[in-house]
Amino acid sequence: MSANTVPLDRDALRQAAGDADWLLTSPASSPARAPQSKPDLRVVPDARPRTRRLSPLVGALTAVGVILTILFAQLGLSIAVSQGAYEARALQAELRDLTRVERVLSQNTDKLSSPQNLADNAAKLGMVQNTTPATLRLSDGAVLGALGGPTAAIATSLVPNATLEGLPVVDAEGLLTERNPEQAAQAEALAAQAAIPWEGPLPAPQTH
Amino acid sequence: MPKLRPLAARRLIALAVILIGAVVFTVRLVDLQVVQAPKLNAEALDKRGVPVTIPSLRGDIVDRNGVVLATTDERYDVQLSPKNVRLNDGKFWRTAEKQVTAEEAFAQIGAITGQQPEEIAKIVDDALAENPKSDFAYVKRSVDLTALNALKKLDIPWLTFDVNNQRVYPNGAVAGSVVGFVGSDGQPQAGVELSQDECLVGVDGEETYEKGADGVRLPGSVVVTKTAENGGTVQLTIDRDLQYEAQQAINRQVEAENAEYGLLTVMDAKTGELLAIAEDHSVDPNDVDATPADKREARSFTYPYEPGSTFKTLTAAALLDQGAATINTPILTPFRWDPEPGVTFADSDFHGDMPWTLSGIIVNSSNVGISMLGSRLDEQTRYDYLTKFGIGEETSTGMPLESSGTLYEPQDWDRQTSYNTMFGQGLSSTIIQTASAYQAIANNGERIPPTLVKGCVDVNGKVIERKGEDPVRVISPEAAADTRKMLEAMATEGWIAEDIGIGGYRLGGKTGTAEQSDGEGGYRSDYVYSYAGMLPMDDPQYVVVATVAYPKANRSSIVAVRAWRDAAEAVIRTFHVPPSNGAYEPLQLTY
After folding, report:
1. Who among A104, A111, A162 is closest to B287 (CB)?
2. What are the distances in angstroms from CA B220 to CA A76, B55, B301?
3. Residue among A161, A165, A196, A199 with most chain B CBs within 10 A, to mutate
């Protein structure tokens, strides 16, 4: 401990070391030089500024401060993380709900685009089917087949589809009507029994 | 030295005590951390952790264009806890101010689920009567998302929900019998649902999380022990729109003619892919109970019938391929023929001895004529041709059940059967097999075994194509071309020409009126009528076969021809088939 605190005259030592070269070449002359160099050694003032000693109290306070800072940081972090967990949970629930809605909507599209539904709607709208359509050949503009081909009324669907139950169809006036008359009669009978208030947005008339 | 001894002894004792203590602690540590660790961890997790099954979704079944034929609908079960309903006299606080009674809650639930409040009250009473501590009862199963959201908004503490996946078929009975259906337990029962279950079924996942007192997952505690993997998508060769029109066509005929059943199949002539497999009144998989049990399965694959005259085409093709006859080979055809003692058969309509060529025999559908020419080939040869045409061999299109029909070995043929097989009696085939035989004729003599299931696309998009059977060379391209000429002659000059004609299109085909076994060794008195053909004849792209069984109104193959024409028109519309090139060249039917 004390060895280090005593400043050494480094130049003098280096000088001594440099001078000591001769020790290797002529060891015999060393006794002659040694007494000579001894008076050169003296205490010199330290060139560096003296570091001020910290009081142990400051050290302890600093340590406690650091520890407290770390503790608070950790507390804050863990609050943030758990807050994030709530947020993540809410977002996950939202994602799940939206996925469900998306699935329902795409399934609605699937069933609304089923041939039975299209045929029912087309028939209600009074559309007819061109049984053997003619074709225009682009290479020479020739019309293949007869242009006045026969048309047929759209046959009512003979292929059942339970997913369309209760779904109305659109008639020529753009109004929603019952898919089949028996169903309509049933609905009327129900309506006579109890008045059911309309829920949800009113269907807009389809005027194009 | 002696002075030091007690000190050393004390040190030694202390050291020993410390060492022993250390050893004891180490042993215990290893025991806890290594030996018992898994058990203790599991126990600990059981106390805090909540295991959750993540249900996987069953895959879709789609048509050749990706249109969904079967999919999985997320539905929800509404459950309640009967014992909690009675807590606090059935009253609970919805908000700090608003108190709700159980009766009010029942009414609110019922308004959404369509139940009467008394019904729900009864569910609670029944559950408590059975078990006073009952904590679970269904209010209503499989409600939709709208109802679920409305019910959640009610904020009723004893009402809980669970996911209950349901299979839905947005196109209803379109291809219903082919797609098949699943039972209420979600297990496949028929059709592609059953045969392709391996592709469709997913793997349920599992995760565990630790929850706080308020039910929130503790951050970082979710451990996914197994990720859920949804099922794959099965793609069929069916075209949904054509399938609908084919079903309409066959339903119309079966209803108009009061027939027992009707089948209609459309096949791609170049690939053997089945484009439509229609059956009368086939099942709507959304509502299986609405269909009688005998019409639920895909009868096209499981109802073999004696095809009758449509198989004269196959005998003629074999004759042409063997060089035993040409389309102009003359044969004086009597009405009745007794080729061997005890063997006799006749044509359906009386005629004198007719100077018909092979083409004339086909156009006039003469049993006698085709047998006289056909017997130029020995039984084994004819049997081999039938086999190459796919008769007597199960098809392998991807359905769970496919009949092979009946084709006995030639050595088992009795004398009558030996002749009968030349005009399609004494053997049976499914409509798919008949279509496949005609596909060979349409495809220049090469039969490509029919397919229904294209393949499976797994959840990661990896496509697993279904390996089809190898093509079979049945007859030469020349023999196939000549056979097609005769089919076109039949459609253009035969007695059905007026009924089948579609302006601008060259069609070809052959009628069949077949007797069927009555199951008691004899034949029924009514017939199965069919028409097998192809279009357009300048380059056949589609094979269409229609069958109407035992009609009571019109007893004629005209009933099958009408269904066939409707289907052919639908094919033209669906695939935008341009009108035919060239014109029919009349064949020499008599000499």
Report:
1. A162
2. 17, 22, 55
3. A161
Mapping DSSP onto H, E and C, the string for chain A reads CHHHHCCCCHHHHHHHHHHCHHHHHCHHHHHHHHHHHHHHCCCCCCCCCCCCCCCHHHHHHHHHHHHHHHHHHHHHHHHHHHHHHHHHHHHHHHHHHHHHHHHHHHHHHHHHCCHHHHHHHHHHCCCEEECCCCEECCCCCCEECCCCCCEEECCCCCCCCHHHCCCCEECCCCCEECCCHHHHHHHHHHHHHCCCCCCCCCCCCCCC
Q: Given an 8 Å threshold on Cβ–Cβ distance, is B173 in contact with A161?
A: yes
As a whole number of angstroms, the distance between CA B575 and CA B532 comes to 20
Q: Mutate one of A102, A138, A158 to test the B interface: name it (highest B CB count within 10 A).
A: A158
Of A101, A113, A161, the CB nearest to B145: A101
Contact B190, B181 (CB under 8 A): yes
Query: What stretch of H or E contains B509?
Result: strand B508-517
For A149, nearest residue in chain B (alpha carbons): B503
Paired tokens of B187: 């297990």
Instruction: Report residue A131 as tokens.
Output: 């049984």
Predicted local distance difference test score (pLDDT) of residue A29: 46
Q: Is B346 helix (H, G, I), strand (E, B) or coil?
A: strand
Look at residues A176, A3, A23, A161 and name the one whose alpha carbon lies nearest to residue B174: A161
Task: Give B406-446 pLDDT, tens digit per residue.
Answer: 999 999 998 989 999 999 999 999 999 999 999 999 999 99
CA distance A114 to chain B (A): 5
Residue B225, both tokens: 């022990």
Omega of the bond prior to B536 within 30 degrees of 0, cis?
yes
Please report the residues numbered 172 through 211 in chain B whose beta carbons come closer than 8 angstroms to any beta carbon of chain A.
Answer: 172-174
- Residue B88, pLDDT > 70, answer yes
Nearest 10 degrees: Cα torsion B575, B194, B297, A121: -50
Selection from B326, B483, B465 nearest residue B389 by Cα: B483
Using an 8 Å Cβ cutoff, are B58 and B72 in contact? Answer: yes
Mean of the pLDDT values across residues B281-295?
90
Residue count (chain B): 591
To which residue do tokens 């006749």 refer? B346
* Cβ contact, residue pair A159, B241, below 8 Å: no
At which residue do the structure tokens 């779904």 appear?
A167
Q: Which residue of B has its CA nearest to A129?
A: B573
**CB distance A160–B173 less than 8 Å?**
yes
Read off the DSSP letter of residue B577.
P
| Shortest CA gap A101–chain B (Å) | 8
For residue B286, list chain A residues with Cβ-Cβ distance below 8 A.
161-163
According to DSSP, the residues that pair with B455 across neighbouring strands are: B235, B465
A-B Cβ pairs (cutoff 8 Å, strict): 109
Size of chain A, expressed as the number of residues it contains:
208
Q: What is the pLDDT of residues A97-106, one digit of tens each?
A: 898 889 889 9
Give the chain A residue nearest B281 (alpha carbons). Answer: A159
Distance CA A119, CA B252 (A): 15
A159:B255 CB<8 A: no
- Identify the segments of chain A with pLDDT beneath 50: 1-4, 22-34
Position B38, amino acid: P
Q: Is B167 in contact with B13 (CB distance < 8 Å)?
A: no
